[in-house]
Specification:
about 160 residues, 2 domains, three-stranded antiparallel β-sheet, two-stranded antiparallel ribbon, 6 helices, about 55% helix, about 10% strand
């Protein structure tokens, strides 16, 4: 075998071309999905501008609280108690027996609200650049693989047709 025409007569070569094409499309789809997912603009909580506002009017920033509003669970009982204490409300002692449902529920009351502010992160231009660079690298990589295959099978990097 010295030419591509002779190679195209082999069933295994035609099958290999189909596998090559399908794998190329799968890799490109993965690259597109990853670049899209990682760089697409998203709305996230802005810790620098989000405030804890007490019923009494006092406000606290995330830096003052040493609390990350963007990555923390706000529904925890301990944070509720901590925020209530900051706002000047005493928590009910858990050692006491609750005489009625109202005193039990009082420990879960919030005497504050969180004023969330959001910011956008990510950029469509970066998405296109990442995808373009990744696509170029994959095309070059697949072409190198194809040329090495020709060199091994046909003895030339650029075989005759």
């Amino acid at each position: 075998m010295k030419t591509l025409k002779e190679l195209n007569l082999k069933w295994w070569y035609r099958l290999l071309k189909v596998v090559y094409t399908v794998s190329f499309l799968i890799f490109i789809s993965i690259v597109f999905w990853v670049s899209w997912d990682k760089t697409t603009p998203k709305k996230i909580v802005d810790n620098d501008k989000t405030l804890l506002v007490c019923d009494s009017g006092k406000t606290y920033t995330s830096k003052q609280l040493k609390f990350d509003f963007a990555n923390s669970s706000l529904g925890t009982f301990l944070k509720n108690q901590e925020f209530n204490q900051l706002c000047g409300y005493k928590n009910i002692d858990n050692q006491n027996k609750f005489s009625d449902w109202e005193s039990f529920n009082a420990q879960y009351e919030k005497h504050y609200k969180i004023d969330f502010k959001y910011k956008k992160v990510g950029n469509r231009t970066i998405t296109v650049i990442y995808f373009g660079i990744s696509l170029l690298l994959f095309v070059i990589g697949f072409e190198i693989f194809r040329r090495l295959f020709y060199y091994v099978v046909l003895g030339s990097l650029r075989p005759k047709k």
